[in-house]
């Protein structure tokens, strides 16, 4: 069904309004989910509010607070709050510190549920002429290469670079499918594509239920390289920021890491942006393989989808998903 953008954003925000959150805070969290939905990332938007552990079921212990801080860094105890709210706070802090010092790093721990599409936060940094790097950790759902147990989170990585035009943004999970991709498939009664997940015995499965209960998602390339990337994120969002790690039972908090770099510390901001745009043009005008009409740079497809949806003023949401949301 088609839903007007303002109506969907209002509906998402109402899910967060409670004794814990103000209307303004609810709108902040809805903004993150809307970014994903508008960008065509349908496992990172509305899907966060349905399933066995919907984001709005949050029961925070206390307000997010900075527990350690220097001029270049901060560590935030999320207090069990919904991750998008804490991540918005972290993004604001890392941008401010980067503007003041040229480089900044902020970690979060003890947050509830998914951070949402982390490209949203990298985009905010890039819009401030900063290089943004974001890493998100979560309870285990992905097996290491050669293993069966779901020790790693889906462990997404996002980067954002300012250019002379729109920022270059890329956001990808280090798993073959996101956890909410499983939730979506289960909700819609769909099978998974072949080769993305295993059951509790380590056999390939297309049943999302078997993957979610005792099974695991595979690393995105099903090899040691993609597993190595996932391992890196597990460390950056676990031991480094005081978050839990390797939790196959799904317990423990979710955690994140945000890094902002001012290009002016090296070549200068305008020079960097010009060179990034030059690189984009070189790539897009390079020779294409047969069957390709165009070479897309990271994030370009999502950007086009988002702009198209914004121009139409509405977005397509599966009827069954909307039914569960309502």
UniProtKB/TrEMBL annotation:
- Which UniProt keywords are present, listed alphabetically? Oxidoreductase
Query: Which organism's genome codes for this protein?
Result: candidate division WWE3 bacterium RIFCSPHIGHO2_01_FULL_42_13
Q: Does the keyword Oxidoreductase apply?
A: yes
Family label: Belongs to the LDH2/MDH2 oxidoreductase family.
**Would you tell me the protein name for this molecule?**
Lactate dehydrogenase
GO molecular function list: oxidoreductase activity
